[in-house]
Design a protein that fits this description.
alpha/beta; seven-stranded mixed beta sheet; 9 helices; 7 strands; 22% strand; globular
Length: 245
């Protein structure tokens, strides 16, 4: 489906590697139905929100902290989905929505900035209905940086941020430990490094530091973790989860 979108249009909304390639690979886990209410968390300049409205028939809230809503609304209107997507500027850690507002929450290439915090999921799941699905795509290393130091070519480009490039296994454990989710799935995106390299060559060129990092990754450590789960429809088996004092 993403191949049907003009590449120049997607590149003009660039805030990271091709977001529609990542989102399309997550769609089977989301199993969206027309009319589902979807929170597009960290939506950037809106490409993923347009895709969710057009391809899935979703009613979308496009939320980002760094993009002005007036600019986001312009993109949505020009794409013909202004009546199905609402632009909101807010912090993912303090969501301005009523409980159980959404049928699904999606985060493409953003979860590494806030999702490693153990306090994030309870706050985020507040706005997801029981049984609703959470699905994210986030930069990852096959060998978790807490198991082995990140490769030198990664550290040279992203520095300390590589500490958030967790492996799929780390994300699965991180989510399962909360007791708030079930059917947790985590895997590396097939061909993720190759897709990212193709994108970097198109947007930054062969001398771009990210391009060089990806080309140096001969052991195929770099990619994207695709992580999804369903909010439990029954009480948390680990108890109420009261904050510690």
């Amino acid at each position: 489906m993403s191949a049907g979108y003009d590449l120049e249009w997607v590149m003009g909304l660039d805030m990271g590697p091709h977001p529609l390639w990542q989102l399309e690979d997550l769609l089977p886990d989301l199993a969206l139905r027309p009319g589902d209410r979807v929170l597009d968390l960290g939506c950037g300049r809106g490409a993923t929100s347009v895709f969710l409205a057009r391809e899935c028939g979703a009613v979308v809230v496009a939320l980002d902290l760094w993009v002005e809503p007036v600019n986001l609304r312009l993109t949505l209107t020009r794409a013909g989905v202004g009546d199905r997507v609402t632009a909101v500027r807010a912090d993912a850690r303090v969501l301005p929505f009523a409980p159980e507002t959404f049928d699904a929450v999606v985060g493409i290439d953003c979860f590494e900035y806030f999702g490693t915090d153990v306090h994030l999921l309870p706050s985020l799941l507040r706005v997801l209905r029981p049984g609703g699905r959470l699905a994210v795509s986030t930069p990852a290393l096959r060998t978790d940086p807490y198991e082995e130091p990140p490769p030198p070519h990664v550290r040279a480009v992203v520095g300390w941020e590589a500490a958030a490039w967790h492996s799929p296994a780390w994300w699965a454990t991180h989510w399962e430990l909360t007791g708030l989710l079930e059917d947790v799935r985590a895997r590396m995106q097939p061909g993720g490094r190759e897709d990212w390299l193709e994108w970097s060559l198109a947007t930054g060129g062969p001398e771009d530091p990210v391009t060089r990092m990806l080309e140096a990754d001969t052991e195929d450590q770099i990619g994207f973790a695709l992580v999804s789960a369903r909010r439990r429809a029954v009480p948390d088996p680990y108890g109420p989860g009261q904050p510690a004092h």
